[in-house]
Design brief:
Blueprint: H1 2-35, H2 50-59, E1 63-70, E2 76-82, E3 85-91, E4 97-99
Antiparallel strand pairs: 1-2, 2-3, 3-4
């Protein structure tokens, strides 16, 4: 009987430890990103459709988006309203929305 309890306890501890190991892996990936910082918008293969780009930009607080086009660097660019002013806005492949 004590062996079964020990086995059950060991299994429970292993299951609880699994998220901690996954969390450490994510932290290492985050450290890598911080080691090579790039200022958004970052050029890259952008898979956002125009509709998805419009939605992300809108959710970032911009309205009245006009002339949205993807440039040769994979960055969606357009003009929008924010805070009552007309501004240039960009969306990169990572989902960063940047006022320019």
């Amino acid at each position: 009987m004590p062996i079964r309890r020990f086995a059950a306890l060991a299994a429970a501890v292993a299951l609880m430890a699994a998220p901690a190991f996954a969390q450490n892996t994510v932290s290492e990936a985050a450290k890598t990103d911080r080691a090579n910082p790039e200022t958004p918008p970052v050029a890259g293969a952008n898979s956002f459709t125009e509709s998805q780009a419009r939605d992300r930009i809108s959710k970032a607080g911009f309205s009245d988006l006009k002339e949205l086009k993807k440039d040769d660097r994979g960055i969606w660019r357009g003009q929008a309203q924010k805070g009552g002013q007309q501004v240039n806005v960009a969306l990169d492949f990572r989902g960063n929305v940047v006022q320019q």
